[in-house]
Amino acid sequence: MFGITYDTWNQICQMYFGLSNGCKKAYLQWFPFSKISESDERHIMSEAFFEKYIKNASFVLFPEAMHQSENFLQKGDGSFRDSSLLSPILYLVLQAIGKEIHNHYQPIRSVNIDAFYAGNYEYMRAKYKVDYDNFYKLINSYICNCTYFIKTDITNFFPNINLDILMNKIDERSNVSENNFTPTQLKMIKEFLAYCGSGRFPTVENSVASSFLSTVIYLDEIDDRIYKFINEKIDCIDAFKIIRYVDDMYILIEDETDILELHNAYNQIRNEYSSILKEYGLSLNTKKCCIKPKKDINEELKKSLYDEYFNGIQHNIEDLFVGKFQMFLDSLLDSVEKDCIDVERYNSIIEECFGNNSVEFTPTEVFNYFVYECENTFESPNVAKTICRLIKTDISFISLDPKRLSIMIMKTKNTEAIKSLLNELFTRDRNGCWNTYDTSIAISYLIQSEFRHIDLLKVLNKNSKSLEDYYKYCCKTSFAVLLRNKRFNDYVKVIDSDWKAYFLYFMYLIEKQRHDVLAEFAFFKNFFDRFNADLDFFCGKDSKSKKPNYNGFYQESAAKKLYKEIPGSDKIIREAHKLRNSNPLSHSSAELIDSKSTSKDLKNSINDLISIINEYMDINWNYFR
After folding, report:
1. Rounded mean pLDDT of 527-556?
2. Residue pLDDT, tens place only, 10-27
3. Which pTM value belongs to this model?
4. Which of 108, 198, 402, 564 is a plausible cystine mate for 440, CB 3.0–4.6 Å?
5. d(CA 623, CA 379)
6. DSSP state of 240
7. By C-alpha distance, which of 554, 569, 576, 580 is closest to 614?
């Protein structure tokens, strides 16, 4: 269905199941991987599992496996990203699709362009850090021979990726020498991406697929075009190198050129790049674009691993930033007490406390190190004492950075601090003041406590049904249970290898998510007719048939005959056929356009058809033992 091979599926499962337990428990998207047993891992990685659920996409029949909802990821300015939270099955399928495309895609980028993304399919790395570091190391290895560099950035990159353009590029460059993806598979991949992203390109926490597809593929032709423009149209630049990390692009210029002439070239390059981006639905973030002499590279990169890369000198962050974490807390407390804390001030405190001009790790990376990795930081009595004072002064400061600050409070293991945090959350819930920031804080707390705080979990569930479902089916126990529902496994038995039935059902789900009821009904009715042919064949009531009679079951009489044992089925089938024959997406009569039928009528018909399928299978239970 999606062009995924078993080898790819197995590699993807190994990559994520092999993550450390600490990594799995640090992120809501990865947390389910911490809950499955080794036997479940072997089962999900097995060829039998792949053949049954992944190859023909039968997993789409299982509602819990198709869970897609909003995640709560924040930007540096405190606002929330438009991000998706996927069931582990959807997540693994997404990564496998990305890997399969990676295996066949032939880039057109010049060899003088290097593009890095978060993670790496070539070396099967799920985490971003190694490739992020390699990006910086490569820039530092080239900058020595350069005079100037140009930095560019793209505004709201992921949300503005056009799926139609993306799929066209995949089709063009993955089917060059042989046909690796059929038009149907490309259609399925596009709709799958749209489903994961609620109609748009999916922004998913720790998704190698999202980063690869956006960087290596979507920006491939764009990078090549800007390279050719500089090479052919900018006379004052002869030698240059382009290095990209996702949407950040650096152009390193080797020529000794008059600065005025170079500034003119910079303007031409920026205008051309902006014009090219516009053709792809993207726009240049001009506030983050600049041209500077090479000595200022660290001002932009804010991280240099030059010593480690060239001289073998490794730096211990704790040694470089002795006392800085306490300084951060003291500065934060001072601002909170003076009532002058906001996101801008908070970020400036991080910059002030964790910046270092000698070895310039990013201040954010240093802060992350102390929060996530340096456990002994929180053993200091003074650290715990200052955090308690912060909470007592104004606990709302946590909303500035819910995830990290919540984790920081929990790692103190200070009962008073943790109790204050929880009391504030419960109070806000009781007073009807609960908001998205509270949800983010609660998620961070529950992940750290492995979802053991039942009362907080109840509050979170009350305020977010989608998170309740995600916890119940993906985090509470092994997510292998997502595909153990007997009813839907019986559906799989009936459909067997009839992938067209799964295609129709998946398209029904797609249109349902889009709230396009006419298309939703059209696809479900087509699925119902095809499923009936499979069901009749499976139960063997016509012993003369050697294969399902798909053409025959589009007729109303055939469906009525199949379900004759079900009371009221005649009326249900007659009404469904009437709606299908008047649906402009299914029949040229298009009578529904003038009809007074409502969306509720169409949805009720779908539910009625599902009910007679299930009742039929219950009556004929002996076929499904």
Report:
1. 84
2. 999 999 999 988 888 888
3. 0.88
4. 402
5. 63
6. E
7. 569
